[in-house]
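Aim 2 progress update. The chain analyzed this quarter is reproduced below.
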Amino acid sequence: MKKTIIATLLSAAVLAPAGAQNYKDSRYYDRQTGRLEYGKQNGRSTSSYRYARTADDSKSPYIGFRIGPSFTTVSSDDPYLDGGSMKTGLNVGIAVAAPVSYSAPLYLESGLYYTEKGGKGKNTDNRKFTYNLNYLEIPLVFKYRHAFDEHFKIEPYFGGYFAVGVGGKIKDFANREAHSSFSDDADGSFRRCDGGLRFGVGASYDMFYMELGYDLGLANICHDTFDTSRNGALLLNFGVNL
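Predicted structure tokens:
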């Protein structure tokens, strides 16, 4: 299942630049604005509509493709589950957004991501362990797209996310043992559902996009009633907006 999810999302991310090239080869593509400009609007020529649209860009929805590394930890009261040392994984997905205001460039953005989280550390016997927590994640954030000119935007955002675990392994290197990271029983594994806050800032130049964000887990993902375990993830994404 993991390979299928990654292959599907990576295919979309890889094909996006090819679509972007066709988009730039279109006879409707305007190199000054980095956009497709079609015919006339309300009796105005393409040229005059181009600048009206640039000035009021907050009315345009978009779809985006994202891929990049995730740098993750899990903080836990349980020494066996406390993965305080940073672990690197993959983050890949599709973003969709629509304007929520006609007077300001404020967007509501969501999407679907495959995100590899987890941590590594040493237990009470000083034995090394690592675990992977692989999630399908749905963010929901408000994003403000501040345009400096026709091409460049800064895009801070704030909101939350909900995630469901789809795979992963806990590995005990000392005993050469491994078992699933997610289980419905309190057997040293994690709950599947996670959620928390997401915030960060993005930057776009025409259709090209990058962002630095953070997932702050608020849900207790361990089974113990008295201990808590929470995810934390620094995300660096690259992609395109269409």
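Residues 74 and 231 are 5 Å apart (CA to CA). The first strand starts at residue 29 and ends at 30. These observations will guide the mutagenesis experiments scheduled for the next reporting period.
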